[in-house]
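Journal club prep — side note

Before the paper discussion, L.F. wants everyone to see what a predicted structure for a comparable chain looks like in token form. Sequence:
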Amino acid sequence: MNQSFNLCIASETVAKDALQLGVSIDVLRRICINVNAKVIRQPALQLQLTYQIILPNQILVNQLHWPIWQQTQVNFTDYLWETTCLECFIAGSEVSNTDITITHQTVPHNTALQHTTSYIEINASPDGRYALYQFESYRNPATLPPVPLYENDGHTRASIDWYDDLKPAMISVESSLSSSPSIATKPHDYERSFSVPIAQLPNQQYAIGNTMIEQIHPCVILWFGETALYFASNHASPPDFHNRDYWSRFEL
């Protein structure tokens, strides 16, 4: 079972952005971004997110900053939103039973849930860098960089897993020279896929750490030269990925 999201561009500065990039407003609005979310069970229970981006013309392709995959870059890195970044926000009730663990998929017999305003932010760069953050409430704590999300041991930073099972057709020379887990299938196509470990709760829902997944909000920031474009399924005005009023219900 999949949940699909079609992301649209934030419109507040689209006229200025189009002028800076030398394209029409219509061209920017035709940038196609789809995010597919699904739960996979092998080799371990995970939430997999696949981002597919299609640019409508070569002018944008020539200006896009899309870092090439490098295995050596796979590590926790802050401030990824300052360049091209794949993001996902997740929120839900707090799982207060401490018996639940991600590593061994231990499921508590009596899971107590408590409403909370906390949420998780996932950042992923196309080159392999990533970061996961924990917020107690809207943009709180306000420290920069944000507070990392830790595994249940309280010491190990949470991480993601990258995938290498995407469409192999029309591999570019640049991509073929790298052991990329995501390959441009056409000159204007870009794709990345990664997952985060989850645990299944007795009520047929899922959790990341102690956060039950009830809302999900995949987003993308694309940098074209010095111009950043922001994409989400729904936008606040002005654009604000952290505003939960615009997040989708998790339906997996």
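L.F.'s comment for the group: The longest helix spans residues 14-21. Keep this in mind when we get to the figures.
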